Amino acid sequence: MDxxxxxxxxxxxxxxxxxxxxxxxxxxxxxxxxxxxxxxxxSCIWMLLQAEFLAISLVLVYVGAVMVLFxxxxxxxxxxxxxxxxxxxxHFPLAAGIGVLIALEMAFVLVRGFDLPTAKAFPPEVAKxxxxxxxxxxxxxxxxxPVQIAAAILLVGMIAAIALTLRKRxxxxxxxxxxxxxxxxxxRLRIVKxxxxxxxxxxxxxxxxxxxxxx
Length: 215
Description:
The protein is built from eleven helices and no strands. By secondary structure, the protein is mainly α.
């Protein structure tokens, strides 16, 4: 057994153990941390398969962004774990059957994908470059139109999210930067002379002392 095979079995064992702990951990925080461990080991397996782009994307997107958000939400919310675990064994047979069906479908797809004689051969210019560059060549040559459609859909989603969050609210204060820039010195500070309406304590004390002396 060479080093690559040994590392593959090690990362696979840790990945399976972390995935099992995700569904069996009593604490949601522990389940999220085990999911982070599973993502890390999956990225290591992809690195062994020379899929550098997928490995880096998994770490940056899921571990660096999505799971951090999950951890913040789980820690901030007061989740009642006992109520979530009610009826676990009641629905376990259905969940196990669906899991076995998904595993068989994945095995069928992977076995057909490893069939090298029927696999699509890469063009000569793609086979000589790195993995990330080859993926970029494929995306922006043969799949340019679907990439543009996906980019347009994401742009529409971003604009919709911004439009929903920037609606005017009565309880929020809004500042116009253009008006702040155009303001003059006279508008920033205005001195107003106001006549006193109440006498100062010193004057009142002096008046009371003078009245007492006359008495």
